[in-house]
Write a structure and sequence with these properties.
- This protein is α/β, with parallel strands linked by helices and 180 residues long.
- Helix content is 32%, strand content 21%.
Length: 180
């Protein structure tokens, strides 16, 4: 995906495992590690800039890919007064804003996670996510979290590259074979 959209869009990958994406470093893709203060500050500035563009009804032409990084943006209650936590809180607020309006202004957000506590701990408004792509889900709580009926979520044939595509707007689910 990043190779296909990088020419027409800005692509930002947020991950604590930047080395996993080193192949993209020289392709105009911005790599940010939320555990580095300078990268966290850059992400804050970027999300603020994008929010301003949306408010001004300008196209953003940006993909933000959060690769297991959303858990690194969680604000822990006992640390809420620390400057770093305030930065993370603002970033998550901006991401929630993007979830509802981003696509209209060509701002796309991919959240890659296996963490079923993402809704509560990261304070993301997952109800605003229009589409979910998932592998097999083994428990009712996770299926409910992503709005996928448990009968589909636990299908035994969801192996070897088969995934669920669920569209939240009309609550339809499709199973498809991914080819990587």
């Amino acid at each position: 995906l990043t190779q296909q959209v990088s020419n027409a869009f800005n692509v930002v990958i947020v991950s604590t495992k930047i080395s996993d994406f080193s192949d993209f470093k020289n392709q105009g893709i911005e790599l940010l590690n939320p555990n580095k203060d300078s990268d966290l500050e850059r992400l804050l500035n970027l999300t603020n800039e994008l929010k301003t563009k949306i408010v001004n009804e300008e196209n953003c032409r940006t993909w933000i890919i959060l690769d297991e990084a959303i858990k690194d943006l969680m604000v822990h209650g006992y640390e809420v007064k620390k400057p770093r936590e305030k930065i993370k809180e603002t970033i998550v607020e901006n991401i929630n804003y993007f979830l509802s309006l981003g696509r209209k202004f060509k701002l796309f957000l991919l959240i890659n996670t296996q963490d079923e506590n993402i809704k509560n701990e990261a304070k993301l408004d997952l109800g605003k996510i229009g589409n979910v792509i998932s592998g097999r889900i083994t428990n009712q709580a996770s299926a409910d979290l992503y709005g996928i009926p448990i009968g589909i979520a636990q299908r035994r044939d969801l192996t070897n590259g088969k995934l669920i595509f669920a569209t939240q707007s009309n609550r339809e689910c499709f199973v498809f074979k991914s080819y990587l």
